[in-house]
Design brief:
The strands form three sheets. Strands 6-7-8-3-9-10 form a six-stranded mixed β-sheet, with helices on both faces. Strands 2-1-4-5 form a four-stranded antiparallel β-sheet, covered by helices on one side. A four-stranded antiparallel β-sheet has the order 12-13-11-14, with helices on one face. A hairpin with a 2-residue loop joins strand 1 and strand 2. The longest helix has 16 residues. It contains eleven helices and 14 strands. It folds into two domains: 222 residues, Rossmann fold, CATH 3.40.50.300; 69 residues, Alpha-Beta Plaits. The structure holds adenosine-5'-triphosphate and magnesium ion (MG). The site of magnesium ion has 4 residues, from helix 1.
């Protein structure tokens, strides 16, 4: 059992009439990745800004590495790194200069700051571009230098606010690898994302927020199970026996959970998390003499879960959210 290193307890934050955070509670164990998932305007960035001491909560408490974000802001800042949703590097400086400057701001000697800058440029495959102004970098390179900047001080806790939004698939994979390396080295990561796939890939646990409230949490698997759960789809060998198959299944499951699809010659039944129900459905069909050509037991995708929980699709963008 590891102890939580991030604890958020009933945090509220309003902007005028907008309840950006409406009683958010969550915790993150040391050395793990929490995926904070939610649609536009859900309160992800606001949560990160509260934890990074950039914004004071109206009520509730939040602590990082045991330090209270309100009363011990300096201590919190000394253990965290933040890569914001929008690039924070200076475009007119080179990659090396950006990193060097942050090192100096953190109190490193000139030599140490240069060394750290070189180390990070190398780690992020930016050595060749290190002496070029950041404004000449591609989007993926900017993201990498942004992440590198947040790592200068070797943070124990790293906040990544939508780190891969707008990146091409290759750059996204590269960033995921870097994030995994950091976690392997013991860093705790709180990652916000609108990409379910990203949360599925990187996060040990996922918290789904919507309109400032936590609407679900758990591992990706647990979230998939919390919703409609699994669906057993059975393809019958003889199309004319589909209705019979439906009737047989109706003895064990409510009619609204059973669907017949004549085009695929199949009947499906929602079995929730009860795999035994799936097995007995197949047994019941067989013993009724319905020949089964094929069957699958499918789990909902994280996309289905997200849609069901928030009522909006993961990639939907709205105009009024900023
Ligand atoms: N400084 C601010 N002033 C006024 N309203 C704000 C401010 N910051 C956030 N909000 C509002 O608070 C709500 C939550 O915003 P937040 O930026 O936390 O959402 P988000 O989950 O990060 O969304 P996105 O996926 O678009 O980045 C939104 O309705 C937003 O318009
Ligand atoms: Mg945001």
């Amino acid at each position: 059992m590891t102890a939580p290193i991030i604890v958020v307890d009933d945090v509220h934050k309003r902007f005028g009439e907008t309840r950006a955070l409406d009683g958010v509670s969550l915790s993150v164990d040391q050395g793990t990745v929490l995926g904070l998932l939610g649609p536009n305007g859900a309160g992800k960035t606001t949560t990160v800004r509260v934890l990074a001491t950039l914004l004071r909560p109206d009520s509730g408490s939040a602590a990082v590495a045991g330090f209270d974000v309100r009363r011990q802001a300096d201590e919190v800042r000394s253990v965290i790194g933040l890569t914001g949703q929008y690039a924070a590097v200076d475009e007119k400086l080179t990659g090396h200069e950006n990193l060097w400057m942050v090192g100096r701001l953190l109190g490193m000697s000139r030599a140490d700051a240069h060394q750290r800058a070189e180390e990070l440029l190398e780690r992020f495959s930016l050595s060749d571009a290190g002496d070029r102004q950041v404004r000449t970098y591609s989007g993926g390179m900017r993201r990498r230098v942004d992440l590198a900047v947040s790592l200068v001080g070797r943070p124990r806790v790293l906040f990544l606010d939508e780190p891969t939004t707008g990146l091409d698939p290759a750059s996204r994979l590269e960033l995921w690898d870097i994030a995994r390396e950091l976690v392997a080295d013991g860093t705790t990561v709180l990652l916000t994302t609108q990409y379910l796939e990203e949360a599925d890939e990187l996060a040990d646990r996922i918290v789904v927020i919507d309109r400032g409230k936590v609407v679900a949490e758990g591992t990706a698997d647990e979230l998939k199970d919390q919703t409609r759960g699994r669906v057993l789809q059975v393809e019958v060998a003889d199309r004319t026996r589909l209705d019979e198959a439906r009737e047989v299944l109706a003895r064990m499951a409510p009619p609204e959970d059973i669907h017949v699809d004549t085009s695929t010659r199949s009947v499906s039944v929602a079995v929730g998390t009860d795999t035994a129900l799936a097995a007995s459905a197949i047994a019941v069909l067989s013993s009724a003499g319905v020949e089964i050509a094929d069957f699958t037991l499918e789990r909902p995708s994280l996309d289905d879960v997200f849609l069901e929980l928030t009522g909006s699709s993961a990639d939907a963008t709205t105009e009024d959210d900023r």
